[in-house]
Fold:
Amino acid sequence: MEKQAEAAGRTRGRRGRRVLIAAVAGCAVLGGALALWPWQRPAVRPPAVPAPGAEALTAVSAGVPAALPDLATLIGQCEALLRTHPEDARSWAVLGSAYVEQGRRTADAGNYPRAEKALRTSLKVLPQKNAVALDGMAALANARRDFRSARTWGEAALKLDAKRWTAYPPLIDAYTGLGDYKAAKRTLDRLLELRTGAAVQGVAAAVYRDRGYREDAAASLSDAAAAAAQPAEQAAYLERAGELAFERGDLDEALRRFQAAVRLDPDQRAAQAGQGRTLAALGRTTEALNAYRVALDKQPCPQYALELGELYESLGLAQAARVEYDLLRTRAADDAAGGVDDELVLGIFEADHGDPQAAVRRLRAEWQRQPGIEVADALGWALHRAGDDKEALKFATVATDRAHGGGVRSAPYSYHRGMIEQEMDLSAPARRHLQEALRINPHFSPLAVPLARQALAALGEPPDEPVPTGTPSEDDVDNKAHGQAR
Structure:
């Protein structure tokens, strides 16, 4: 017995040394990898490739993007299994979550009723302690832009198991959609205590961006892309890095990120739309139009149709623009049939290209449902377009209020506020906000940028006057307006 114990001890010692050596080597490799973007690293021999359904299962279970062909395989496997095992609650939950991801990636809202049916079946089969189905319901509600429901499902999942890290990202998205940025930050802090890795860094990047911490957001996305397990996940983080670069007006950087995302995952349509946006800003119009068409062909998202329509309009192609605006309305109607709330994009469209009064009605109702910063900006602009500048300024102030809002540095938000202030003969703040919009991103819109420049030229240079004293600061005005809008 003593000899057996001694031999076992030597075996454990050798295993321990091998684990330690592997851990040290792994840290050294990871440390070097994080210094480079994924496509800049030298080629390495790939590991054994798991089955496509297994890859998608891993991604869906962690709430990260999955490749569309792998998702289709996973859905087929789940459906086949459930035909013979209809009481398998976990498989129903996985199937529902896979449908949510497929719907999100294809902009096909027809997936969402199927997802809801599968997830509710899972909850019916296993009513208690079914965290996977609760996570799926929260993700489904977020995909439909029903942030109140997402918050309810997310908080239920968290109550069930506060240490289950996958419950946190959908809840953070819900809080953000409802404009509760403090709750989003608190929830992120708890998540960071529980988990690290690509998915968590991706969530952190979104929160940092909304709070105006661009450098932190960019660093988190770099880490997320470096640590991503699959090309589709990595491409999603690169696409978001491209969005961040475009928002700050760095067109070359944005284009590189978008192109890298598409190389990794040709189904990354958001990156293709990002290419269209960036190429248009670079003056490469033909390429921009082609990129938008490719994106819309496989992911006919109303937002992409709006952007392409405005690009056509900026080129004087009114008929082509109307085709895209008709597509926007059609896709929004299809989305509504799948339970998706497209009132925000419809309100934005109506304000500039349709009926501003209808835009105000839509966006007032949306503000009551989910008062996020995006809705505040859109409602303020719709009110301006409808002729109510006094109330418009209240909401435009909310959208740019760093004390109470998300703090995001947005060229369109600053532009909207500046144009409203110009109409109200508030020359100094109008000049300041229009200059800020063009400083943040001088290419933010093919239609709005020329108007911003014209408005600044009309305002002229500020008068040479002494700085007044004893007047309220801009933050004081912001805070007061925020309270009135609420």
Notes: Confidence is low (pLDDT under 50) at residues 1-49, 477-483. Residues 196-299 form a domain with the Serine Threonine Protein Phosphatase 5, Tetratricopeptide repeat fold (CATH 1.25.40.10).
